[in-house]
Specification:
heterodimer, A: 12 helices, B: mainly alpha, 6 helices, transmembrane (chain A), Effector of murein hydrolase (chain A), hydrolase (chain A), hydrolase activity (chain A)
Chain lengths: 244, 129
Amino acid sequence: MTPLLAWQPEATWAWLQGSPLLGVLLTLAAYRVGRAVHHRCGRHPATQPVLVAIVLVSAVLLATGTSYGEYSRGGDLLAFLLGPATVALAVPLHRQAHHLRRLLLPLLVAIPLGVVVSVSTGFWLVTLLGGDEQLAITMAPKAATTPVSLVLSGDAGGIAALTAVLTIGVGIVSAVLGPWLMTLARVRHPHARGVAMGAVSHGIGTSRSLADDPEEGAFAGLAMGLTAFSTAVLLPVLLGLFGA
Amino acid sequence: MTSRARPPRPASVVFLDGLLWLLGFWFVGELVVRTFGIPVPGAVVGMLGLFVALQVRRPGPRSATLTAADGLLAHLQLLFIPAGVGIVAFLAVVRDDAVPIVGALLASWAIGLVLVGWVVTLLLPRRGR
């Protein structure tokens, strides 16, 4: 007969490793710390909560010898929410819809152009700097939002999971430095700033834009959606032209 | 979605309703995309669908959908953490190809951002700039 109480730490640890609980808990805790750090540092752009959290979670995984596969049992649960969050981007757009008409032409020109530039510079610069063709294909769709970029990369012969990392990387760089670079380049209008952020740095750039200015954020969200669409259509064509 | 001329719902139900609308539009978006072989994520089509629905129905500021969307978007960065942590699986690759990876990423990002910003600025109607 099994005793009612039994001291069994090994079984507990084995259960924890197979459960998504640890991954979710760790991610939420790291994000909470990231937000606190961001707040403490006077909302300094270099302390984006997502960046702080990725560094923290990665450090914990490396320190405890936990594989990414074990962590992602929990991570995948959170990543699932990217679906409803993408749908939710309709709300800021709805609030700014009265500005849409004057942005129609700029969007129709700038978004496809942005995709062509992002994909071709990503592809060619990797090649130019000594990377192989697979790495170039992996880099090419990085401006589209993660769920899109990783599928496109895999289909085209790139490393899908690495594309996801590069996509997040470009998003973080943009959330940290994007507004600064645009001010330097004299891009001042909130609509132009928002569209540019969404077009090159998807949801992470959009979250910075939303925090800076609701109008800028709404157009970042729209540009993110349109860029995902245009990248899906244009990537195979462009890679075909590059002979990849 | 609408909250006009109805008694206010408790916060718990508002949350549930809002989540249902967001997941519902995602679901419809996936069905459309997959059925017709459209090369776009279903969630983006769901976003366009919700946008049209919001424009037509004009829900009040305390509608369930708006509340749930604002709550989710406030923590948008949280949802990208798992994919970003994927870096631990690629530390060796990034170390070996640091120059093409970091160089191409930064340069391609900067060129794209400035170019799109300039083009939109140029094409915006002058009035009200």
